[in-house]
Design goal:
Elements lengths: L1 H13 L7 H74 L7 H92 L11 H7 L7 H19 L14 H27 L11 H35 L5
Helix pairs in contact: 2-3, 2-7, 3-4, 3-5, 4-5, 5-6, 5-7, 6-7
């Protein structure tokens, strides 16, 4: 009986209340760099696509007009060919007709031959004129068609390249988000182990729900992270591990977290806006906006969001180290 009790006490001593989660924080920072690099490459790829797309949109009217003229130029030739063939056959028929017996019949046949000959010449001239118009329309249309086909092939290739990069970036972002949620969850578990009142707060599963459930993920990740931060500060101050002069110290952590979350949401909103207007609306998004400006804005906001996140993760990792170093006080 005593042996069982001793073993139980040894297990309790060895059981850690607080775990070192700094590796997950550092892994999240590393994945942030990967996501940022992929984001920049994807944005530049999107810019390449849109440059080609702008050219396609701008050339569309000229191409469609040339195509319409080419099709319209073909229509008269069908009637011209039919009429020339008709009068040619008619003329051959008149010339091979049996010789007229009377003078009037001869005169009538000669008049018909002359009339048909003149009509055939007129129809032939019209046919030649329409043939020339078709050749001119064809000369205008074919080069435009070749350029149009080449542009569309380039656009399709650029579009496929962008979507490949976009999918890779999205997957990298999801992986990074999972590890951030995992980091949050383990930090919450630490707080649950040392702070009994945390049973009324977020559960260890809350970070996963906050990050991956639509609509909720617009605000909950910030709320969860903020609670982890504030409860950690309270635990450190309550045990006098960290002494803070509240009268002379201004805590800007809430402001920094708000800026971080705002920048992250804005960067996601800008990218969704660009994607929507580029791929799901007629025309090209950058037709009415400067290419370089939009790319720079998107990249700068993402860089600022990642820098703010790196600062917050690094600062909280220090809190985690302090909690771990003073585990015996809890």
């Amino acid at each position: 009986m005593y042996i069982i009790l001793i073993i139980s006490n040894i297990k309790k001593i060895r059981m850690k209340k607080i775990t070192d989660n700094t590796f997950l924080g550092k892994l999240t920072l590393l994945l942030n760099v990967v996501v940022l690099v992929l984001f920049v490459i994807s944005t530049l790829s999107l810019l390449k696509f849109d440059k080609i797309n702008v050219a396609v949109v701008n050339d569309r009217d000229a191409y469609e007009k040339a195509y319409e003229n080419f099709v319209m130029a073909q229509h008269p030739l069908r009637q011209d060919s039919a009429e020339v063939a008709y009068y040619t056959n008619k003329l051959d028929s008149l010339r091979t007709k049996a010789v007229a017996n009377t003078r009037d019949e001869k005169k009538s046949l000669a008049d018909m031959i002359n009339l048909t000959t003149e009509t055939l010449k007129e129809k032939t001239k019209i046919q030649e004129k329409d043939q020339k118009a078709l050749q001119e329309a064809e000369a205008t249309y074919l080069p435009l068609k070749d350029a149009w086909d080449a542009q569309n092939a380039d656009r399709d290739a650029a579009k496929r390249g962008f979507w490949v990069l976009a999918c890779i970036t999205a997957i990298a972002f999801l992986i990074k988000t999972f590890f951030f949620a995992r980091w949050d969850s383990k930090n919450l578990r630490n707080l649950h182990n040392i702070s009994p009142w945390m049973k009324d707060g977020y559960s260890v599963a809350s970070p996963y729900i906050a990050w991956f459930v639509p609509i909720i993920n617009l605000i909950k990740p910030l709320s969860v992270f903020k609670e982890i931060w504030e409860e950690s500060d309270y635990a450190l101050e309550n045990k006098e591990i960290v002494k803070v002069d509240k009268d002379n110290t201004v805590d800007n952590s809430g402001l920094y977290m708000g800026i971080w979350w705002g920048l992250l949401l804005i960067s996601c909103w800008i990218m969704n806006l660009i994607l929507f207007f580029t791929f799901f609306r007629e025309g090209a998004f950058f037709v009415k906006a400067n290419h370089s400006t939009m790319v720079i804005v998107a990249i700068v906001i993402m860089v600022l969001a990642m820098l703010m996140e790196a600062m917050l993760i690094s600062q909280y990792n220090k809190k985690n180290k302090l909690l771990l170093a003073n585990e015996d006080k809890f």
